[in-house]
Amino acid sequence: MSMLKVEDLHVYYGSIHAIKGVSFEVNEGEIVTLIGANGAGKSTTLNTVAGLLKPRSGAITFEDQPTAGVPASKIVARGMALCPEGRRVFQQMTVRENLEMGGYTRPAGEIAASLEDVFTRFPRLKERHRQIAGTLSGGEQQMLAMGRALMSKPRLLMLDEPSMGLAPLLVEQIFSIIGELNRAGTTILLVEQNAQMALSIANRAYVLETGKIVKEGDAVALMHDDDVRKAYLG
Asked: Which residues make beta-bridge pairs with 157?
């Protein structure tokens, strides 16, 4: 069943036509990845789906409900969360305060249980729950950004470049967590420059080039596609 459907999306930055008729869907229980070079429009697409950018035209439907005109905070309350590019944790707040900010759409009585869930998945965050977020390592900040997104109990988790700037060992760890989250029932839409890692974990993939989808299909098939290999897999 289609959980997220994006149809003929057009997004502009001023006069720049950044997204040119993008259509794709994410089915319940899947990991779907958008891959492409820097500036292809991957983050713009995610930010538009999350309600942070307004499309010029096109339709976005989440669980059969259109999201046009719905504020980003209400989209979170409906069950969709974005873990943004560059982590963007609240640098001056503690780990715990950052996580609590992520749970703002949840009833107050459920925050403690959500915190426990996040601490179970990310034991490092539990160890450092009183630490100021800005003093964490890059990998720990990425875990915190993911944990904060999970506090809203999303059915669809969107991850924008989760491996950016991380050491290879941490990249493996983050992708292992993404796989666990998916197996536990969270549907995932992943934007990632590391195409090899993204395709190895995804069910299906879409390739974005200069604001257009140029290829789509089964992730394993795309990993063996000559054009994709040349352009993104080295």
From this structure: 81, 188
Q: Which domains are delineated in the chain?
A: 2-79+155-233 (3.40.50.300), 87-153 (no CATH)
User: 188-221: per-residue pLDDT in tens?
Assistant: 999 998 999 999 999 999 999 999 999 999 999 9
Name 188's bridge partners. 31, 157
Considering only CA atoms, which of 45, 51, 60, 76 is closest in space to residue 2? 60
Quick one: angle between helices 111-121 and 95-102, nearest 10?
120
Contact 99, 148 (CB under 8 A): yes
Is 107 strand, coil or helix? Answer: coil
Cβ(107)–Cβ(138) under 8 Å? no
- Give the C-alpha separation, 90 to 118, whole Å: 17
Distance (Å, whole) CA 11 – CA 9: 7
User: Beta-carbon neighbour count of residue 27 at 10 Å?
Assistant: 14
Residue with tokens 């538009």: 48
pLDDT tens-digit map of 130-173: 999 999 998 899 999 999 999 999 999 999 999 988 888 889 98
